[in-house]
Amino acid sequence: MNRAEKAALQLQAVAVLRMLKETRTYEELSDVTGLPAGDLNRYVNGHVLPGTERASEVVESVGREALADELVARVEFDDEGYVDNSEVVFDQSFLDLVAPVAAETFEFESPDVVLTAATDGITLGAAMASFFDARLAYAKKSKETAVEEFIESRQRLASGIELTYYLPASAVDAGDTVLVVDDLIRSGETQELLLDIALQGDADVTGVFALIAVGDEGMDRARAITDAPVGALTTFE
Ligand SMILES: O=P(O)(O)OC[C@H]1O[C@H](OP(=O)(O)OP(=O)(O)O)[C@H](O)[C@@H]1O
Q: Euclidean distance between the first and final Cα of the chain, in Å?
């Protein structure tokens, strides 16, 4: 490991510890990592960097299970079953850790474009695009001013309301490989629209990924449309 790789690993470990510290005391963080609370305090505050061996242990310990636990700790449901996931989608550092784990868990091929839906999918989309060194594109519920050509997809929802998403036509080229991501899949209506937009753009879908699936309906709907891998970090019943 050269010096730059060592520094990158050390900083990655600090990012992991800071993320885990968000929902824990130093004592709890010590229980999770097996490292002394005093050392953890110095790492999290940036006074000292963990040595290479400790750094790689910390980074390797953050697999799917640890991130899924973290996600569950950060998500809240109200009485009607609506999800508040602000503590997840507002935390770019957390999402940056999710991207490599999602890629490995579901064996997503590296895409040309990561496609998502505004608004709440954007930060996850940015993390995934950055990880894959891909372009990010997000469809919106309104037409962007000054864009002339759009791919649009519309459907009537179960509620009877019509939902339309618009993507600037230049965002996806024919033959691009596209990974569709979103923060949440519930009915799967949004994913269906995004998959339709990819299809209209003559793109090849390489996968569908969500942080949170609520029930199976949305995931099943996506699987009925594409043969590519479809996965969520966590499923809530
Ligand atoms: O599987 P579905 O039933 O389609 O639900 C999932 C969608 O719902 C939320 O977006 P919302 O429409 O609330 O828009 P927002 O991101 O702007 O809040 C969420 O960000 C997903 O895009």
A: 44
